[in-house]
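Dear H.,

Thanks for agreeing to be a second pair of eyes. The structure we're designing against is below in token form, covering all 180 positions.
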């Protein structure tokens, strides 16, 4: 083998290694941001934190997420606050006499030991009231969740489209999420 061929071969191997390292770094940061809306405080894990976009002039917005309690004791989501509005309430949706009714959960929502509570359209949700601005798809805003036992955790809501049934990064039908 000639000296020039050996040098060229070594340069190609080095270049490939450098490109592979950059590719790994890129994937690490890309995947990290894909899961940026997952939070943990104590035994509580909060995932899929999102909100719906609002039409111009709307004064309310719905916020959604999933809470998993990995602990042996129940906890309670007591309240939320956000930079988006001065008032945020935890609500549930219930069918009563054939009519869907929204109810304020003034005492919060219990997250059972080893259990999961989904805040989703048509169920539990957070109602952000007296909005300071219109929410557009792709916007983000900060909020604080207060748990009775786990404490306070800062989260970021990512805004999906108007009328969305699930965050943009997750299919609305959840068919691939088999729960056993």
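And this is the sequence the design step returned. I haven't edited it by hand at all.
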């Amino acid at each position: 083998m000639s000296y020039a061929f050996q040098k060229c071969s070594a340069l190609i191997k080095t270049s490939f290694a450098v490109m592979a390292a950059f590719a790994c770094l890129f994937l690490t940061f890309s995947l990290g941001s894909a899961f940026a809306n997952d939070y943990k405080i104590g035994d509580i894990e909060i995932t899929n934190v999102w909100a719906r976009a609002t039409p111009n002039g709307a004064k309310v917005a719905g916020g959604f997420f999933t809470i998993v309690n990995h602990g042996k004791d129940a906890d309670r989501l007591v309240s939320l606050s956000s930079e988006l509005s001065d008032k945020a309430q935890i609500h549930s949706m219930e069918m009563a006499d054939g009519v869907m009714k929204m109810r304020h959960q003034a005492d919060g929502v219990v997250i059972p030991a080893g259990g999961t509570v989904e805040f989703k359209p048509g169920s539990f949700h957070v109602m952000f009231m007296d909005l300071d601005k219109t929410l557009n798809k792709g916007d983000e805003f900060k909020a604080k969740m207060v748990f009775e036992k786990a404490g306070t955790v800062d989260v970021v809501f990512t805004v999906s489209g108007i009328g969305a049934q699930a965050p943009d990064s997750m299919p609305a039908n959840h068919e691939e999420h088999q729960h056993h």
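Two observations from my side: The helical segments are 3-34. Residues 3-34 form the longest helix (32 residues).

Warmly,
E.
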